[in-house]
Amino acid sequence: MSQPPHGDAASAPASSSPSDPSEASGDAAATARLLPGGPVAERILAEVAERVAALIRRGVTPALATVLVGDDDASAGYIRIKQRQAAELGFASPHAHLPADATQADLHAVIESFNADPAVHGLLVQYPVPAHLDYDRALMAVDPDKDVDGMHPLNMGRLALGLPGPLPCTPAGIEELLAHHGIPVSGREVVILGRGATLGRPLAILLGQKRPTANAAVTVVHTGVPDWPRYTRRADILVAAAGVPGIIRPEHVKPGAVVIGGGVRYAGRRLLPDVDESCARVAGAITPRVGGVGPTTVAMLFRNAVAAAERATAAANGSGDPTVSG
Ligand SMILES: Nc1nc(=O)c2c([nH]1)NC[C@@H]1CN(c3ccc(C(=O)N[C@@H](CCC(=O)O)C(=O)O)cc3)C=[N+]21
């Protein structure tokens, strides 16, 4: 699992097709190999589909419930992506849509009813919620066994302790993306710009763990450190997780480094990535603006959901023997 720091970027395997329309326009100067998330997601979702089929053969339809508060356009759009994917995979996707003026109690009533419903295996409350509501309190009300985002404090605690549990989707998707594209992580220097609870912080834990696809020397730095480029320029693998559009520029990237665009902000439905596209001139490999980390996030959500359904089914069968019942 140990290779020279830049070896991977030069030896582009078959998966990066030469027909990929690189967004780096104009100059024919060096352009990074692209690291699409689509093929990664497809492989994960194919595995999920098999596990769903096995559950359905045993009479269990896995169900992933979604809760949306308010009428934010982008959020409604992402819920639709998840529902379409759910239908394709054979999941039921019960949905609760609360009005923008719903109270915290209204939200908790919906969460409690999904928690109590044995036909619901996974549950996610779409982030963000309107400003008068407390998202963290809502998250804590979700049954940790149904927490497909892997964000409940119990599951974050499991992650920190190295115990099994649902993994946060975007971090887990990034580990999968790196592994899929054959980028060595073990023993290398990973720098994460951003320390948020959904990406930077849990990714640091994940990639620092003792696993062949992780085991890195991880540094977390944030934009409040005046000299943050000093850190990002050291990275063999730089992960942008700041949520500040365009913050990562070519001068922040070590030549030949792998650049993963994790952080995004949304302007309405438009996606504004942390990584400026000009970084492709310096990086050895880089995720595309669209079709990079996003699709892997959704795939991991469904992997968590099918795992929750399998656990619930095994528990309902008493012994935990997955061949019982039918
Ligand atoms: N409880 C909760 N769990 C979430 O997982 C969650 C959430 N709340 N709130 C919103 C964010 C956002 N999110 C995305 C997932 C996939 C893409 C995705 O696949 N995007 C495509 C295209 C998107 C576009 O063009 O706008 C791409 O990156 O290629 C984007 C965004 C999950 N979120």
Protein architecture, described:
The protein is an alpha/beta fold and 326 residues long. Helix content is 37%, strand content 13%. It has helices at residues 7-10, 38-57, 73-89, 104-116, 135-141, 153-161, 169-180, 200-208, 228-232, 293-316, and strands spanning 33-34, 64-69, 95-98, 122-125, 189-193, 217-221, 237-240, 258-261, 264-267, 270-273, 285-286. It has a 6-stranded parallel sheet with strand order 1-11-8-7-5-6. Strands 3-2-4 form a 3-stranded parallel sheet, with helices on both faces. It is globular and about 55 Å long. The N and C termini lie far apart (43 Å). Residues 1-28 and 322-326 have low confidence and may be disordered. The structure holds 5,10-Methenyltetrahydrofolate (GUE). The site of 5,10-Methenyltetrahydrofolate (GUE) has 16 residues, from strand 4 and helix 10.
**N to C succession of SSEs:** HEHEHEHEHHHEHEHEEEEEH
The domain tally reads: 2
How do the strands line up in the largest sheet?
Answer: 1-11-8-7-5-6
- Average pLDDT for all residues: 90
Regions with little confidence, pLDDT below 50 for 5+ residues: 1-28, 322-326
Strand proportion: 5-15%
Query: And the CATH topology of the largest domain?
Result: Rossmann fold
CATH architecture of the largest domain: 3-Layer(aba) Sandwich
Q: Report on the biggest sheet.
A: 6 strands, parallel
Bound molecule kinds, no repeats: 5,10-Methenyltetrahydrofolate
CATH homolog superfamily of the largest domain: NAD(P)-binding Rossmann-like Domain
Shape: globular
Percent of residues in helices: 25-40%
User: Which structural category fits the helices and strands?
Assistant: alpha/beta
Number of strands: 11
CATH class category of the largest domain: Alpha Beta
Radius of gyration: 20 Å
The N- and C-terminal alpha carbons lie at a distance of 43 Å
